């Protein structure tokens, strides 16, 4: 008998040592996985920062190249360097080709707009390349720029037109070329002078004074018609592009919803595998390796689907941004309050400044880093993980909401990276029809009377069990029993009875 007892003690000590070793291995494995996850997160953040930095650097290089290109065009126009002017235009054409702009009707329209924008660029004083060519007396450059769409009546520094600058410099041929291209000799500068008045040569002044203004009027009408045609064509192209972008956004939105649906199913499968592993460890410890491998395979699948969903989200966001830019709508500043995670306790939990209560809506926390979710998970809150099917059971949601109503504890729905708001609405309505809308509109929290005594008829609702009406006094609500969920509304706003301890906070931690 004694030997059997010693044998059992020996076996027990041996099993205890084995379990200690296994536990130590488990702890080391968890620490290793945590370190790997942390390093992976750091690498991901570094990669995102690198991409953002490269994008900013590319945009800065493009801005500098555009400035240099404009400077070259302005200098070439003043010097009459036609080869340099054409070289600058060829660079722009090549850049449009690299950006995927074709030579169809839409592509030709975009190329024309870009070319006109380039030849109408201005220096720091507001002078265009055509104005610089006029000041330099470069007749061929004037002709070329006008053919490319440059306006002969643009005003630059001191309100001076290209014709004004050509006349002021005494360039007779340039003045004649500009008049034939539709330059208006009647346009005044800021000081009230005309080109004819500032011309230093009598020949230049004579040409300006004897010019047939009916020709100018006809050319101005033709230019106005051409500008209107271009503007109408640009509007049509812009509307067509906006329509295509809108269709693309709709397609990407459908793809994103499908990715989220598949990801949700994968999360549900992962939670089932975890539950199976827990049951297997209790009943069949020898087969736990199989269930553990199933969990790892499912986690790999979830990670892949999460990356696909993130990519779909990024593509949709970029398409929406492109659509906003295409339609040229000014984006309103996003409402809300930006704060650091360290400020969440004051901003969200204590509502310092009463921003949340004054707004009248439930707070929505957006934090891509996930730190806010971690903070709320470890606060005294009723936390619901929408990715966990067990948390979305109607009974679980009912208990969480009842605890929030009775004891004034915040109720948190964590959507993670998936839009599961419609799913949460359905589950709330499964608890009690119309509960989602009642919760969103705050009807669930309305006071039953502004003064005097009111009767709160709970009628055994699906949130709690009340056997009889309760008399409530708005002047002294603390005197009423606390077994009626209606009185818990006052607990949500900080009444003393919100300090009960029969709730299980560990269940929601």
Which residues form runs of ≥5 with pLDDT under 50? 447-509
Helix content range: 55-70%
Output the structural class.
Answer: mainly alpha
Q: From the 3D coordinates, which CATH architecture of the largest domain would you assign?
A: Alpha Horseshoe
Q: What strand order characterises the main sheet?
A: 1-2
Count the strands? 4
Distance between the termini: 49 Å
Order of helices and strands: HHHHHHHHHHHHHHEHEHHEEH
Mean pLDDT: 79
Biggest sheet features? 2 strands, parallel
Radius of gyration: 37 Å
| Highest-level CATH class of the largest domain | Mainly Alpha
The count of domains is: 4
C-alpha geometry: elongated
| CATH evolutionary superfamily of the largest domain | Ankyrin repeat-containing domain
Portion in strands: under 5%
Structure overview:
Keywords: ANK repeat, Coiled coil, Repeat. It comes from Octodon degus (Degu). Pfam families: Ank_2. This is IQ motif and ankyrin repeat domain-containing protein LOC642574 homolog isoform X2. 63% of the residues lie in helices and 3% in strands. By secondary structure, it is mainly α. It folds into four domains: 64 residues; 173 residues, Alpha Horseshoe (Serine Threonine Protein Phosphatase 5, Tetratricopeptide repeat); 90 residues; 129 residues, no CATH class. The protein has a two-stranded parallel sheet with strand order 1-2. The protein has a two-stranded antiparallel ribbon with strand order 3-4. Helix 15 links the parallel strand 1 and strand 2. Helix 4 runs parallel beside helix 6 and helix 6 runs antiparallel to helix 7. The radius of gyration is 37 Å and the shape is elongated.
């Amino acid at each position: 008998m004694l030997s059997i007892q010693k044998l059992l003690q020996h076996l027990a000590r041996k099993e205890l040592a084995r379990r200690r070793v296994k536990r130590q291995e488990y702890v080391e494995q968890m620490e290793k996985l945590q370190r790997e996850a942390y390093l992976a997160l750091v690498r991901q953040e570094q990669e995102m920062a690198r991409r953002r930095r490269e994008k900013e650097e590319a945009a800065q290089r493009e801005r500098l190249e555009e400035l240099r290109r404009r400077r070259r065009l302005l200098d070439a126009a003043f010097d009459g360097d036609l080869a340099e002017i054409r070289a600058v235009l060829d660079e722009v054409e090549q850049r449009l080709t690299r950006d995927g702009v074709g030579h169809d009707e839409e592509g030709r329209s975009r190329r024309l707009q870009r070319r006109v924008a380039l030849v109408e660029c201005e220096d720091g004083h507001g002078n265009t390349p055509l104005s610089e060519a006029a000041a330099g007396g470069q007749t061929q450059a004037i002709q070329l720029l006008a053919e490319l769409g440059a306006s002969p009546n643009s005003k630059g520094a001191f309100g001076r037109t290209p014709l004004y600058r050509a006349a002021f410099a005494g360039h007779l041929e340039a003045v004649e070329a500009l008049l034939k291209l539709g330059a208006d000799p009647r346009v005044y500068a800021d000081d009230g002078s005309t080109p004819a008045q500032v011309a230093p040569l009598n020949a230049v002044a004579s040409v300006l004074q004897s010019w047939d203004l009916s020709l100018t009027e006809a050319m101005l009408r033709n230019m106005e018609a051409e500008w209107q045609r271009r503007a109408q064509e640009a509007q049509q192209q812009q509307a067509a592009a906006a329509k295509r972008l809108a269709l693309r956004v709709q397609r990407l939105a459908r793809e994103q919803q499908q990715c989220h649906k598949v990801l949700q199913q994968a999360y549900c499968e992962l939670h089932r595998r975890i539950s199976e592993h827990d049951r297997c460890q209790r009943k069949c410890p020898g087969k736990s390796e199989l269930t553990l491998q199933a969990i790892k395979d499912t986690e790999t699948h979830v990670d892949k689907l999460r990356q696909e969903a993130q990519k779909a989200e990024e593509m949709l966001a970029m398409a929406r941004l492109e659509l906003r830019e295409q339609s040229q709508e000014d984006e309103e500043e996003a409402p809300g309050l930006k704060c650091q995670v360290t400020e969440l306790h004051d901003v969200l939990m204590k509502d310092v400044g009463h921003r949340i209560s004054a707004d009248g809506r439930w707070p929505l926390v957006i934090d891509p880093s996930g730190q806010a979710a971690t903070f709320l998970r470890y606060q005294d809150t009723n936390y619901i993980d929408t990715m966990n099917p067990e948390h979305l059971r109607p009974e679980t949601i009912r208990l969480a909401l009842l605890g929030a109503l009775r004891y004034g504890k915040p109720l948190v729905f964590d959507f993670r990276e998936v839009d599961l708001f419609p799913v949460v609405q359905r589950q709330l309505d499964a608890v009690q029809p119309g509960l989602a809308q009642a919760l969103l509109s705050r009807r669930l929290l309305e006071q039953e009377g502004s003064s005097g005594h009111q009767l709160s008829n709970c009628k055994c609702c699906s949130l709690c069990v009340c056997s009889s009406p309760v008399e409530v006094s708005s002047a002294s609500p603390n005197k009423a029993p606390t077994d009626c969920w209606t009185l818990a509304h006052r607990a949500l706003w900080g009444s003393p009875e919100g300090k009960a301890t029969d709730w299980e906070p560990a269940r929601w931690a």
